[in-house]
Amino acid sequence: MQDKATGTERRIFLKTAAAATAAAALPMTASHAKSVAGSSAAAPADVVATALQLRKGDITPLEALDAAIARVQALPKLNAVVIRDYDQARAKAKTDSGLGREARARATEHAPLWGMPFLLKDLGVSMAGTVTSNGCAFFKDAVAERDSTLVQRYKAAGLNIFGKTAAPEFGMTTTTESRLYGVTPNPWNTKHTTGGSSGGSAAVVAAGILPVAHASDGGGSIRIPAAHCGLFGLKPSRGRVPAGPDALDGAVGLSVHHVISRSVRDSALLLDLTAGPEAGSRVRPPSNAQGSYLQALTRPERKLRIAIWRKNYFGVPVHADCLAAVDKAAKLCEAMGHVLEEKMPELPVAEIFGGMGPGMSAGLLNAIEKREKQLGRAVREDEMEPLDWAMLQAAKKASALELYRARAGFDKAGQLLDAFLSQYDLILTPTTAVPAQLLGVLRLDLPYESYAAEAMKSSAFTSLFNISGHPAMSVPLHWTAEQIPVGSHFVAPFGGEARLLSLAAQLEQAMPWAHRFPDLSALKA
Fold first, then answer.
1. Which of 18, 394, 474, 513 has the fewest CB atoms within 10 Å, counting from its CB?
2. Secondary element (H or E) of residue 163
């Protein structure tokens, strides 16, 4: 049963619905970009544009859904949609498509994305009557009894959810490969990873199946796939988007939910429609948005002071293409009048990062024990990936003191980075230390040492801001000579999503990316 909205929540939602209609007039400059190699001449329609077509009756919800499903079926080797809830979605689409003009107008007045097909990541969220497997054989038939708060908000916005996208088991690696579902290759180069753990969602958007898809980020899992797949990925501040009702603070605060999108305005709209506390929330970040996040896109920020980090705190060498992405972002920001300076704070690395393992493993242990209770039996070793099994055994032996120190380390990171960001408006770093790695080097059945070395190349920059809780985004401004996308990573003060979105909209206009599209011929039957 869905929670009833409070009066305040309803006013916010209705205000956002009106903003969504106005957003259709926002420019999509990428759609006017010239065709280049690996690109199409025009950007595919985003959620804002498609929602307008649905409201006007130019297309029906059933037509939109069937077209999305057809795009999934046309790319069987993409292996991105691993759970198909088609029957439930088609039943809803048929009902909605049968509405007359007046009934459609009433429905869309309160649900700005009415009839829009949508996909959830197969990790950490629930939709009643459907399976969320978390990429794990032990959960392969785990049917949810209720909707997550976030899913309630997606449905209230009008989204029609028709399946789940691939993720590695419990999101514990930066690739989208699992024993349960196999490999999801990068649409730009099928020998390479999409990134993880939201790689299925990134693949869906990069391949043009949908313009936006649900994602989550516990160490870079929105930003890394966005970077590897040439998309926009915003990780909100801790507490901005609800994670409950089962766990209000995912992975002891490390994990947050949002989307991966092709356009910036889609990300802003989905944040408007989902942000805000739920019952029991105690972490409530401030907001620097005057009005909605969509409205922030049309209000350029004042001259910003931006700190550039070309190095990371682990000494992982940074690939020349990842530095080139930073240079492109820096030059664009300077051309906009912003001031950039190379500056990194000193941080107690061991104290801050030492808590990631205990935080993630505690969440894993909790999920496994709940499932064991449901099934009335213990998980077997052959039902989990080897590295996750080892993490589970370690979690059983962990002490309360370890978990306490982990959270204290997270707080220390927040304190020190808050102080640094009182001197700077943003931080600019590479999203990853290397471009998308080859498939197979980040699997959860590898020796720990080789896996960890490769994983560090992916998350050396992103994971710090899961620890500290700051909002961050990856923007696709660079492609390698082999046409593999590379991201540029920006971080804002806590609660500063509007600043990130405003800058992203300017970067999107200055160097459009939405028209860039991979050759999908290798992914067809």
1. 18
2. strand 160-165
Paired sense of beta strands 160-165 and 117-121, if any: parallel
- For 392, other C-beta atoms within 10 Å of its C-beta total 19
Closest CA to 211 of 21, 44, 90: 44
Tokens of 279: 């019952």
Could you say which of 39, 92, 97, 121 is catalytic?
121
What pLDDT score does 377 carry? Answer: 98
Among the listed residues 97, 216, 221, 474, the single catalytic one is: 221
Burial of 409 per CB tally in 10 Å (0-12, 13-18, 19+): buried
Contact 489, 333 (CB under 8 A): no
Give the residue among 382, 354, 390 at the shortest CA–CA distance from 463: 354
Strand pairing report for 177-178 and 472-479: unpaired
Contacts 24+ apart (CB under 8 A), 347-353: 347/313, 347/413, 347/416, 347/464, 348/412, 349/313, 349/314, 351/409, 351/412, 352/409, 352/410, 352/412, 352/413, 352/464, 352/467, 353/313, 353/409, 353/463, 353/464, 353/467
Identify whether 221 is a catalytic site residue.
yes
Annotated catalytic residue within 148, 178, 197, 201: 197
- Reference 521, options 190, 213, 66; nearest CA is 190
The verdict on whether 126 is a catalytic residue reads: no
The DSSP-derived string for 466-477 is HHH---EEEEEE
Residue located via tokens 């590695």: 168
Query: For the chain, what is the radius of gyration of the CA atoms?
Result: 21
Residues of the chain with pLDDT under 50: 1-22, 27-41
Q: Is 197 a catalytic residue?
A: yes
**259 is written with which tokens?**
């989307």
- Give CA 425 to chain center in angstroms: 23
What are the distances in angstroms from CA 292 to CA 34, 47, 260, 298? 31, 17, 19, 11
* φ, ψ at 284 (rounded to 5°): -130, 95
Check: pTM over 0.85? Answer yes or no. yes
